[in-house]
Design a protein that fits this description.
Layout lengths: L1 E3 L4 E2 L4 E2 L2 E2 L5 H5 L4 E2 L2 E3 L4 E2 L4 E2 L4 E2 L4 E2 L4 E2 L7 E5 L2 E6 L4
Parallel strand pairs: 1-6, 2-7, 3-8, 6-9, 7-10, 8-11, 10-12
Antiparallel strand pairs: 4-5, 12-13
């Protein structure tokens, strides 16, 4: 399940990837097993072009993710994050 908050903007080519595949269970991987973990994007978030968000990630409200970033861990409210993997660059003013 993907939940996207109000007033969120998603740039072109962004991907929200909920699928997880077995890493340690070789038999299940051969058989094509997978499962999904939810992604939650808060209110007033901006995902730049070509951002990839991994399974199970939550991005907090009022945060900005720089173009081309790969988000593999939760991002808190009110920050700018970028990179691969995405790292917090700075905080933004709170409302």
């Amino acid at each position: 399940m993907i939940t996207i908050g109000d007033d969120t903007r998603i740039g072109p080519g962004a991907q929200l990837m909920t699928a997880l595949h077995p890493v340690d269970d070789h038999r299940r991987r051969r058989e094509g097993w997978e499962r999904a973990h939810p992604i939650t994007v808060g209110d007033n978030v901006w995902l730049g072009a070509a951002v990839t968000v991994g399974a199970g990630v939550t991005i907090g409200r009022n945060s900005v993710i720089g173009a081309g970033s790969v988000v593999l861990h939760d991002i808190p409210d009110h920050v700018v994050a970028a990179g691969s993997p995405a790292a917090i660059l700075r905080s933004t003013p709170k409302e």
